[in-house]
C-alpha cells in the first residue's frame, strides 16, 4: 500500500488507469481490483484500509470480478 500525490483529476486518472484494473469506488477514490481483500455494499478493504463505495461501484465490482449474485 502506498499513497501517491498526482496533479490530475480523478476523471483523467480513471480514463488512463481503467485498462489496468482500476475503478472509481467513490467520488474521492480509485481502487486497483487486484488489491481488494474484501468488499460489501458499503466498503472495500485494501491493505487493511477500508474505503467507502457507492451502490453503482458495488454492482460494477460484482460484474468485473464475475461474482454470482443471489436473486
Structural summary, described in words:
The protein has 71 residues and is an alpha+beta fold. Helix content is 25%, strand content 30%. The chain is built from two helices and five strands. The strands form two sheets. Strands 3-4-5 form a three-stranded antiparallel beta sheet, with no helix packed on it. The longest helix is centred in the last third of the chain and has 10 residues. It starts with 9 loop residues before the first helix and ends in a 7-residue tail after the last helix.
What are the main properties of this structure?
30% strand, three-stranded antiparallel β-sheet, 71 residues, globular, two-stranded antiparallel sheet, 5 strands, alpha+beta
Percent range for helical residues? 25-40%
The tally of helices reads: 2
Give average pLDDT, whole number. 81
Q: Report the oligomer.
A: single chain
Amount of beta strand? 25-35%
Give the tally of β-strands. 5
Low-confidence spans: pLDDT under 50, at least 5 residues? Answer: none
**SSE string, helices as H and strands as E:** HEEEEEH
In spatial order, strands of the major sheet run 3-4-5
Structural class: alpha+beta
Overall, the morphology is: globular
Q: Report Rg.
A: 12 Å
Give the N-to-C terminal Cα separation: 35 Å
Reported for the largest beta sheet, the result is: 3 strands, antiparallel
Amino acid at each position: 500500500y502506498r499513497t501517491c500525490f498526482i496533479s490530475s483529476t480523478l476523471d483523467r486518472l480513471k480514463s488512463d488507469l481503467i485498462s489496468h484494473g482500476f475503478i472509481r469506488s467513490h467520488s474521492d477514490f480509485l481502487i486497483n481490483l487486484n488489491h481488494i481483500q474484501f468488499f460489501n455494499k458499503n466498503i472495500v478493504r485494501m491493505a487493511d484500509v477500508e474505503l467507502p463505495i457507492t451502490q453503482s461501484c458495488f454492482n460494477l465490482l460484482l460484474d468485473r470480478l464475475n461474482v454470482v449474485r443471489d436473486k
